[in-house]
Write a structure and sequence with these properties.
The chain is mainly beta and about 300 residues long. The chain has no helices and 21 strands. Bound molecules: (2S)-amino(carbamoylamino)ethanoic acid. This is (S)-ureidoglycine aminohydrolase.
Amino acid sequence: MTDTPPKGAPIGDPVDLRQPRLDGPYAGPVAGLPPQTGLTTDTAVFTEAYAVIPSSTMRDIVTSYLPGWTGMRMWMLARPLTGFAETFSQYIVELAPDGGSDAPDYDPEIQHAIFVTGGALDVSIDGTDHHLTPGGFAYIPAGTDWSVRNSGDGNTGFHWWRKRWQPSPGIEKPQAFAAQEQDIAPSPMPDTDGAWATTRFMDPADLRHDMHITVVTFKPGGSIPFAETHVMEHGLFVLEGKAVYRLNRDWVEVGPGDFMWLRAFCPQACYAGGPGPFRYLLYKDVNRHAGLWPNR
Ligand SMILES: NC(=O)N[C@H](N)C(=O)O
């Protein structure tokens, strides 16, 4: 006779991660259900060129867990789908106090980046410890030993990007680093009078990097004034503020906690609505020849 758990008994990790949402500019879905403003989209969209996953749809029912982690749940927002065209994965991870992993991934060809949206996270990379708070960023090169642990009293939320690092002759692997967004001066876009600025975690002149993670900030009324169209993909997560975003042929209203996945060539533009700044995390693949998966 097999033992079946009694009805209603917890199965697996008994930690209840459902907590009230975080406040402040990094507030998002990670620590609970997002605010319902009624102003931004509450409809998920999936097309040949893009997907929109609104914060209102990131609920308990669509979470996953990963082997090798404790006190953890995650929303898998993006991952390579077709096996040759897409470059990256992006997850929102939520950790209970003391939750984390000593072996977050198993694939030595994958590089990683982390951005903390709430709580406190200790990241150890090849024996060097970094303490990250909201706005904290860490880059973890492929083939590195690393671990993460929630070092706060409440839940911690962070974004996790994974991408196969693409070697190139004469180019070494990038080195690990950690930074806080608040310590980096944003670079204004030329001719925008400061209405559009980018905070860069990677140095654009450093060709060891084949992916860039940035925080893009628009003042109210700021815009991307033409339909940018390029082969590079994007993962785009709204940290703060409201905007209408052009995705291929459509205009979509977006707000805090909403995620947009843009395939290669998806035309894109936006208008920031105010009253505060519109800010988003942006992933982009850069600096390499095109090639077939796994990025040869
Ligand atoms: N949607 C964006 O913010 N795109 C950027 N301007 C970029 O591709 O760099």
